[in-house]
Amino acid sequence: MLTSKWKKIGVVASVSLSLLVAAGCGEDDSGSKESSDSNGEKKEASVNVGKEIDYTITGIEPGAGITQSTDNALNEYENLAGWEQEKASTGAMLTELGDAIDNEEPIIVAGWTPHYMFAKWDLKYLEDPKNVYGDVEHIATIARKGLKEDMPEAYTILDRFKWEPADMEEVMLAAQDSSFEEAAQQWVEDNKDTVAKWIEGVEKVDGTSIELVLTPWDTERSSANVAKIVLEDQGYDVTLTPVDPSVMFQAIATGDGDASLAPWMPVTHGDFYKKFEGKFEDLGENLVGAKIGLVVPKYMDIDSIEDLKPAE
Questions:
Q1: Cα distance between residue 280 and residue 253, in whole Å
Q2: What is the domain-level CATH number for residue 13?
Q3: What is the pLDDT of residue 63?
Q4: CB burial class (10 A; 0-12, 13-18, 19+) of residue 303?
Q5: How many C-beta atoms lie closer than 10 Å to residue 312's C-beta?
Q6: Number of domains in the chain
C-alpha cells in the first residue's frame, strides 16, 4: 500500500483562478489581425483582451502533465511572453469554464479529451503549430515488476483492458449525476460483451488484495472504477489510490502500488515515464485517441495559440 506521506504529496490544494481572454480574427497577407464589420469590409482588430485579464491561462493541478506542457508552451511561444498559468484544481477549472460559458465570456483553459466537458459544451482546441502539446496520445497500463507472477489473473485482465474514448466519456458524463462507482457499474452492465473478452478463461480468486494507482482526473477515475468492478467480480479486494502523476510512477516502480491505467503517453507523462523507465512493466495501450492542449469556447474568435498577443 502507498504510505500516507506519499498520499499527502499527491494532494493538491485549490487556489483562486483568473480568467484569460484572447482576441483572434482573420489574418491578411501582411500578418495583421483583421475582422469584418457589418458592411463586409475588413478592419483591424485593436482590442487586446489579454491585457484586461492579466494574461492568465486557467490551469489545473500543479503536478499534472498538461500543466507542465502549458508551462513549456509559455516558454516556446514568443507571443506568450509575460503570460502566466494559474494552477488550481480540475474542479476549479471546470467551474470557471462553466461560469464563463454561462455568461458568454472568453476564457482559455488547459483541457483534454476524453472529457465530459466536450460532451457538455461547444469547445475547440487552439492550434498548436509548435506541437508543444504533442500529437494524439494514448493512455497506457503499467504494472509493478512481479505482478504477473504474483497475480496472474489480475495481470491478464489489466493487460486485456482496452476501450474507446466514447466509453470513457460515457462514464464521466454519467458520473456527474451520480458517482463514478455507479456510472462504472452501469457501464459494466451495459457492455457485458466487452468485459467478457477481458475475463475470458480467467479463474476467480478469493479476496486477494490489489491496489490500483491513478491520477486525480475524471478520465482516470472512470477507467479505475471500471477496472475495480471487473476485478471485484473476479474476487479481488481492490483499493484505488489517487495521487500526483510523479508519485504514481514512483509507486509502481517501487512496488508500493500494483498497477495503473492512468499514464498519458508519449507527451503528457513522458518525463515521468523516462525517469522510472525499466523499473515497471508497460502493458501497452488501454485507450487510443487522447489529446491535450489549450481549449476555448467555440464562440471565441480565435483559432491558434499564435493568435495571442504578448503581455504589455
A1: 5
A2: 3.40.190.100
A3: 81
A4: middle
A5: 9
A6: 2
187 and 245 share one domain: yes
Q: Check whether residue 165 and residue 273 sit in a common domain.
A: yes
Indicate if the pLDDT at residue 210 is higher than 90: yes
**Residue type present at position 211:** E
- Domain enclosing residue 96, as ranges: 4-135+293-307
**Considering the domain boundaries, does residue 44 fall inside one?**
yes
Distance, in Å, from the CA atom of 295 to the CA atom of 298, rounded to the nearest integer, reads: 9
Whole-angstrom distance, CA of residue 307 vs CA of residue 231? 48
Residue position matching grid coordinates 503517453: 265
**Alpha carbons 58 and 87: distance in angstroms, whole number:** 7
Handedness of CA 191, 197, 202, 207 (dihedral sign): negative
Region for 18 from its dihedrals, namely left if φ exceeds 0, alpha if ψ lies in -120 to 50, beta otherwise: beta
User: Is pLDDT of 3 > 90?
Assistant: no
Q: Report whether pLDDT(7) > 50.
A: no
115 and 131 inside one domain: yes
Statement to judge: residues 221 and 302 lie in one domain: no
In a domain, 312, yes or no: no
- The enclosing domain of 260 has a CATH number of 3.10.105.10
Looking at the structure, do residues 74 and 110 belong to the same domain, yes or no? Answer: yes
Between the two ends of the chain, the Cα-to-Cα distance in Å is 50
Kindly state the greatest CA–CA separation across the chain.
75
Interval 10-41: pLDDT, tens: 433 333 323 232 323 333 333 334 434 434 43
> Cβ(146)–Cβ(256) under 8 Å?
no
Amino acid 26 reads G
